[in-house]
Amino acid sequence: xxxxxxxxxxxxxxxxxxxxxxxxxxxxxxxxxxxxxxxxxxxxxxxxxxxxxxxxxxxxxxxxxxxxxxxxxxxxxxxxxxxxxxxxxxxxxxxxxxxxxxxxxxxxxxxxxxxxxxxxxxxxxxxxxxxxxxxxxxxxxxxxxxxxxxxxxxxxxxxxxxxxxxxxxxxxxxxxxxxxxxxxxxxxxx
Length: 190
Known about the structure:
2 domains; mainly alpha; globular; single chain
């Protein structure tokens, strides 16, 4: 039974993604998602209490899937490359572009007002990478939580604001400069 429930939830999220990419969040209804997924509205409400919760789950699924959670880098350059690669994958997600274009106030809410589930999960993954790097001696010592929080801010801002600086920096330049910023936050000094 658990697989059937998981398959149903996945089908609903896949339908929500397709609808969101076509119409944006504000113009996508539970009825649209139900129709596309082939389930009833009541079935959707068994999994999520409202559309906002469904869309939050969708964004979390899409973002967190790009984050390396269990792979530990052997050195600082490996960790920097892993984090920049993950940020680049998030930056390339179609839903990120669509939200930026059609629902900027939703985007802004998670930059300016509140932490979402995906941000908390990313912070936890970053903290694990910082801790692992400190134990291996290639990440500077200090409190893990604040270091991971600053990494989250740098990565998040770089992903969300990348289109603003495209006239000054192409994708390769973005990766190079983000790597320098991440390296600067993590490297052992002196």
